[in-house]
Every structure is written in C-alpha cells, then in structure tokens.
Give the backbone structure.
Amino acid sequence: MSSSTDSWLLIHILLFLPLFHPLFAATHTAPKNATCHSTCGTLPVKFPFGTGFGCGHADFARYIRCSSGTLQFSTGTGVYTISSIDYPSNTLILTDPLMSNCSSMQNSGSFSLDSSSPFSLVAEDTFVLLGCSTTSPVFDQNEELCNTGSGLHICRGMYSCAGVTGIGLTPNAPISTCCVYDPQIVLGSGFMLDLPKLQCSSYTAIYGYGGDEGDPMKWQFGISLRYNDSYYTEACRNCEDSGGLCGFAGLNESFACICRNGANTSNNCFGRGYAWSGTWRPKIQIKMGVGGT
C-alpha cells in the first residue's frame, strides 16, 4: 500500500472520530449476561438488589443473585435462600437449609456475615446453639456468652420439640447443652458462628415468635438482616421512572440504566442521553427546498 493511500486512510479516520466519540463516551459497555429482571421466582427484586451481575448496586451484587428462580445470599460459609424482603423496613429473611427448627434438627454448618458488608444482624434476632459439649467455650463463666435469663425459657422450648432426636437428644432433655446468646456478642472475627470451634452440633435463629412465645412450633425460624438503604440516587429514580432497572457497567462499575429492550444507557430509557443496543446507524436528514428540490 502506498504512502499516499496510508495518508488518505489516516485523514478519514481522524475526520470520523469526532462523530463517534460523543456516542461512545456516553455509552456503557453492557455487562456480561446483563438480563436484569424485577422478580426472582415470586419475590420482587428492587434496587439496590439485582438478579445477576450488572444488576442492582455493585456493592450488593457480590452477595445476592437469582439462581433457577431462587434469590440467594452468599457468605464465606455458604449460600442461603432469601425467603422474603421487606423493602419499607430494609430487612430480609435468610433460610439456612441446615439450620434446625422445632420440627427438624440436624447437624448444622457455620454462619458468617462479613462485617464490612452493607448488611447487619437485626437486634431482635435470637441465636440458639444446640447440642453443645459441656466443655464448649460458650459456657465459660468468665465470658458470660449465654443468656441465663429469658434464654433458659427458649432452650426449654427448643428441647421440648420432637425434632431434638435429630441431634441425638430426647424430648425435654436437660438444657445444659443449650446456649442462647445476643447477636451483638461477637464470636470470632466479624459475625462468625463457628460451630466446630464452639463444640456445638447445631444452631437455630429466631426472628419472631408468631405471637406465642410458649409454643415453639409457632416460632419464626430464620436470620433477619438489615441492609443499608443509602444507595438510592436521583439517577436511579430517573431510570426507574422510564421503565428501566438500575445497574452498573464497566471496569469502574459506574451507574447504568438497563432497559427492557436490552439497551444499556447512562441516563434513562426515554431516549434522553445515548443508548447502545449493539448497532449504530447514523440518521441522514435531507433538507428539501421549495418545490421539492
């Protein structure tokens, strides 16, 4: 190729760059598999949560995702099902499939919550350690980790359940192997419930008593978490008002409005700002003079 041809190509590339630059400057690269939905199964999914990577707020995307119609919460100790979300109170309920309840008790895994995450335990949560060894550190009299007041009533209630046979106990067994502790007490780093270290067979969490503290069959078992709701912005509200879902894109995880047609825009789905849907066609306007010339 001649040097004159090279010069011709370079000149035309430089001439066309200003035409394309505003478009790409205002456009976000669509995140991989960026199909965002407003529901996961039967649960409504609203900002700051999302159904997949690129949906919702980036700080929440590493913890929450939708898998096969189930909204899941991930921590260092496992994956848990989100059974409900109460958006007005900024709380959600986690269900651990290995966690014990009155109907069924079994050896449980551990539970952890990253202390730097946008989630925190709700103060009303009651954690109960079941089938603990008498040498467990939770019974250290110098530490006072167990609630020996109202906690005794809860332990008696749990040990009255027929489900205790699942951890090798008999109904109404002595509660000397049961411990109820306040979730504000930190066991290990962050919010870490390490059952092997605590020498306990199982655990349960109670977030409500169903109006009857005397009947453990009516108790509400699960882990209630409160999430930080300060992430909502005017940009997200503008996106939602246009029918879009708030998300993020690019290496810097900047705001993106995911529209129902698959377009990804930095503003909204009404057409204000630039939207990129995978193709670009310039609009050609022909100005007609008087007489059609």
